[in-house]
Structure formats: C-alpha cells, structure tokens
Write a structure and sequence with these properties.
By secondary structure, the chain is mostly helical. It has two domains: 94 residues; 139 residues, no CATH class. The chain contains eight helices and two strands; from the N terminus they run H-H-H-H-H-E-E-H-H-H. A two-stranded antiparallel sheet has the order 1-2. Helix 1 runs antiparallel to helix 4. The mean pLDDT is 85.
Amino acid sequence: MGCLYEFVKHENISAQFRRWIWLSGLGIWLLTGLFVYTEYTVFLLAPVLLVPLLFLGVLRKDDKEPVFQPASVLITAILYTVLPFISLILLATEIEPGAYHFELICSIFLLIWANDTFAYVFGRLFGRHKLAPLVSPGKTWEGTIGGAAMTIGMSFVLARYITPIATIHYVVMCIILIPLGVLGDLVESKWKRRLGIKDSGAFLPGHGGFLDRFDSILLSAPVIFLYFYAVKTNLF
C-alpha cells in the first residue's frame, strides 16, 4: 500500500480519483487475504470482478481530464505496485499444500540486495561502459555482470542451507530476478526523472520511499511466482 500511495501521489489525477485508486488497491488486498485463508479458488476471480468498479471512477472524474487517463493510471498502479506483493504471498502459500515457505520471500530479498551491492562494488572498481546513461548514469555493464555472477553464486549457498528446493530452481530464480530487477530499477528511475524528483518518498530518510526500496521486486516477483507454480511438483 505504501508503494501504491507513492505512485498515485505523483500522477496527474484528481484527489477524488486518487482516493478511488487507494480504496481499489485495499479492496484487492482484502480479497487476496480471503483467498489465502479460505483456500477457495473462486477468490482469484475477485480482482477480475473489480474491473467494472474500477472504471466506474471514470464517470466521477473531472470533465477536463482525458476520459481514460485516470483509468489507465489505476490499472498501471494495480499491476505495478499491488500485483508483485500479492505474487510474493502466493509464492509462500501456494507452491506446496499446507506449507508456508517464508524462506522463499527472504531469499528473493537477499538475492536482490546481493545483486545491488555487488553491482555497486564491481561498478566502482571496474565500471567503464554505461548501461543506460540517459536513465541511470551510475549503472555500468561491468557492475551488472559482476553483480549477476556473485548473485548466482549466492543462490547456491541459499539453496544448500536455507530451503529443500533443488539448486537448479534457485539458479533459474536468479536468471529471472537479475535482468527484471535491473529493468525495474531503470523503469523507476525513468519515472522519477520524468517527474523531476530524486526520491519517490521520504519513508526512510536518506534512502527514499517505498518504491525506491522495492523497485527491483515489482517486475520480477510475478514472473518468479509463475515459474515456481509451474514447476511446483518438481521443486522438492
């Protein structure tokens, strides 16, 4: 909800529609909770049923705005800031019946932090070629490759000592996580550059807001969940 709040706060929409988006996000979270704790698949369809309600906000908007701009912001906000965290919850609860694999969520964050840290170190030591100079001038190909190599190495350690999941699946998680994590970081940087802001918020003084801390999760978490769910019968 913190990520959703920051994203919507900076978009050029009316305060009334902004509140509508926040309530929609909260409603989807509540429906996800019903699914997780009741184990009825029907609740997976609940977000789909919310779509007509989301567009109801179009009728309540200021007539000076483009008709579908607020609806576009709403759908983007839900897909960008709500779906990823729902994917993390489903990753922990749905890949093995009756089990809660919190260690998978922890592993994702550990791998992201490792990738960011080692990419920074290798970039400072060996960085020569810019990855995306117009979006994030500090990122280099050398840093990205070095961070990726160290992160894949760390995945072997996590697979060996943290979970009973086969090592190959942890390696695949890294292959998904690293490029999509970098992409998520660049997308958020591009978004902030367009808005002319340094940080998405001030939740952590000196470290930025929620989106600044979770940008690498936003694009990678849904894909990781889909992979683990697809191979769940062969994970352990």
